[in-house]
Write a structure and sequence with these properties.
Structural class of chain A: mainly alpha
CATH class of chain B: Alpha Beta
Largest sheet of chain B: 8 strands, mixed
Distance between the termini of chain B: 12 Å
Shape of chain B: globular
Strand order of the largest sheet of chain B: 4-6-5-10-11-9-7-8
Helix content of chain B: 25-40%
Helix content of chain A: 25-40%
Number of strands of chain B: 11
Shape of chain A: flat
Distance between the termini of chain A: 41 Å
Order of helices and strands of chain A: HHHEE
CATH superfamily of chain B: Amidase signature (AS) domain
Radius of gyration of chain A: 22 Å
Oligomer: heterodimer
CATH architecture of chain B: Alpha-Beta Complex
Strand content of chain A: under 5%
Number of helices of chain B: 15
Number of domains of chain B: 1
Radius of gyration of chain B: 21 Å
Order of helices and strands of chain B: HHEHEHEHEHEEHEHEHHHHEHHEEH
Structural class of chain B: alpha/beta
Strand content of chain B: 5-15%
Largest sheet of chain A: 2 strands, antiparallel
Number of strands of chain A: 2
Chain lengths: ~100, ~475
């Protein structure tokens, strides 16, 4: 798969990454090369193979449905870019 | 013998017998960092004040006789582990201002064991790289030749231990990030079985592959540090609940009858012929120790780099979506709306390699491509894991080179991601299978260190450490230090 500039712009937008226009062709080349490398996987048939999500095929551990977290809001908000009255501030979302 | 020439085990013994104090040892290494790190750039943060306070506490415990095995011994943490009150950058501009509100489990275990933290070590940005050149804080230099890379992503960890600015360090390994820098810097590095060391508070790159481990001078030191690092953790959903093992207990076992497998794929085209010679000499040494050699095949190993560059970026694109400029980390100036806030905070906060991997992952997971990429890669991952399963029916340990080449020049591969990715051709399959792997010093090619890789079956860390330790009893590669750092 070769990615052109438009495709790269679309992926960057999906990933919420602002990419400088002058850098787009470089990314298109690099990403296309990586996909070519990746596509070497297609040389092998995997029809009967079970996908492997975890090295030891372990499943997610369950726990009792009880509160385990303590309230650390002040500590967490101390490292936030912008907060007010215990809330995280972002630019206006609804006009 | 000067303090910096001592291993962790020797420092611990000296502290226990009161030959020197923890404050003396700590100050000795802080002085070495001040003297040499301008050349190497291996530290992002030096925590001198806290280190000396911890050392004083350790000395008090040592005086009372209420110490643990490593009480008062200094070490440095890779800057991927969250440390309460001390910056955790993960090598990224995105986290240049990030002070974690808690300690990673690895960090709190080290604290509880009385280890003194000298500082936080430089690394490839978000652990994505094999040369430590993607760090926001600039590249780390290899102490064996400062025009060359130390490897990555735990490049700061490897350079700092190699130059003896710290007697040991932690690292993390997603595709080779402990073993490859250990190889390039003449050190012992161990990536444990997936799930053995808690990932809690270790900033996530590819969650199904990430695993923390020690980077040390000797196998004995790695065993001591592994004893401290492992253990079940409720806070990590993939942590494994296993019986406790004392990793130093079996170091002295004989290797008589050990079955070593040599995968033909690890000695094929692409391997530097001088590196190959060093590896063959090391294997011959194992024969003298009583091991038998079997040729084996890992027929799908050529698919490990392709499968990895789907799985790791896919998981990375998901993990790194949390960096959005809202709750912590970098935020762009004057965002005009919410989307602008996200796009510019991420665009300005991440470096080029991180962006590449996020985009590959985003593409692989996007509608219509999931089966062709992610699902396919997970199936290939099964094939690679099955190769190892078959091999371990016949052999106890797999050996080969850690890296196809010795340390390369700074900048040599930085414009060519593919060449960089192929540095990890022998290490990546081990992460995909979730197996434990080590790299140990095996000699030199063109005056640069060569690492021998040992791969064991699941939970065979004690055996791997025993195999490494026995080799280090009959060779002295691991005691050699780079010139200019005495």
């Amino acid at each position: 798969m070769t990615l052109d500039a438009d495709k790269v712009k679309k992926i960057a937008q999906l990933a919420r990454l602002d990419i400088d226009a002058s850098a787009i062709p470089g990314y298109a080349t690099n990403l296309s090369n990586i996909l070519q490398l990746v596509e070497q996987m297609n040389a092998v048939s995997t029809e009967q193979v079970e996908p492997m999500a975890h090295p030891l095929d372990a499943t997610q551990r369950l726990r009792e449905d009880v509160v385990t977290e303590t309230n650390q809001r002040d500590q967490f908000q101390a490292i936030a870019p912008q907060v007010d009255a215990g809330l995280y501030l972002v630019p206006k979302v609804i006009e | 013998m000067s303090l910096y020439r001592k291993s962790l085990a020797e420092l611990a013994a000296g502290l226990h017998t009161k030959q020197f104090s923890s404050v003396e040892v700590t100050q000795h290494f802080l002085d070495r960092i001040a003297k040499h790190d301008k050349t190497l750039n291996s530290f992002v943060s030096i925590t001198a004040e806290q280190a000396l306070a911890q050392a004083k506490q350790a000395d008090a415990q040592l005086a009372k006789g209420s110490m643990a095995a490593l009480t008062g011994v200094p070490l440095a943490q890779k800057d991927i582990f969250c440390t309460q009150g001390v910056k955790t950058s993960c090598g990224s501009k995105m986290l240049d201002n990030f002070i974690a509100p808690y300690d990673a489990t690895v960090v709190s275990k080290c604290k509880q064991a009385g280890l003194v933290m000298l500082g936080k070590l430089n690394m490839d940005e978000f652990a994505m790289g094999s040369s430590n050149e993607t760090s926001y804080y600039g590249p780390v230099k290899n102490p064996w030749d400062t025009t060359r890379v130390p490897g990555g992503s735990s490049g700061g960890s490897a350079a700092a231990v190699a130059a003896r600015l710290t007697p040991a360090a932690t690292g993390t390994d997603t595709g080779g990030s402990i073993r490859q820098p250990a190889a390039l810097c003449n050190l012992t590095g161990l990536k444990p079985t997936y799930g053995l060391v808690s990932r809690w508070g270790m900033i996530a790159f590819a969650s199904s592959l990430d695993q923390a481990g020690p980077i040390t001078q000797t196998a004995e030191d790695a065993a001591l540090l592994l004893n401290t690092m492992v253990g079940f953790d409720d806070k990590d959903s993939t942590s494994l609940n296993r019986p406790t093992v004392n990793y130093t207990a079996s170091l002295k076992d004989s290797l008589q009858g050990l079955r070593i497998g040599l995968p033909k794929e690890y000695f094929a085209a692409g391997l530097n012929s001088d590196v190959a010679k060093v590896i063959e000499t090391a294997i011959a040494e194992y024969k003298k120790l009583g091991a038998t050699i079997t040729d084996i095949s890992l027929p799908n190993s050529h698919l490990s780099v392709p499968a990895y560059y789907v799985i790791a970026p896919a998981e990375c694109s998901s993990n790194l979506s949390r960096f959005d400029g809202v709750r912590f980390g970098y935020r762009c100036n004057d965002p005009k709306d919410l989307n602008d806030l996200y796009q510019r905070s991420r665009g300005e906060g991440f470096g080029a390699e991180v962006k590449r991997r996020i985009m590959i992952g985003t593409y692989a997971l996007s509608a219509g491509y999931y089966d062709a990429y992610y699902l396919k890669a997970q199936k290939v991952r099964r094939l690679i894991s099955d190769d190892f399963k078959r091999a371990f029916e016949k052999v106890d340990v797999i050996m080969g080179p850690t890296s196809p080449n010795t340390a390369f020049k700074l900048g040599e591969h930085s414009d060519d991601p593919i060449t960089m990715y192929l540095c990890d051709i022998y290490t990546i399959a081990v992460n995909l299978a979730g197996l434990p792997g080590m790299s140990i010093p095996a000699g030199f090619a063109h005056n640069l260190p060569v690492g021998l890789q040992l791969v064991g079956n699941y939970f065979s860390e004690a055996k791997l450490l025993n195999i490494a330790h026995q080799y280090q009893q009959v060779t002295n590669w691991h005691t050699q230090m780079p010139k200019g750092f005495e």
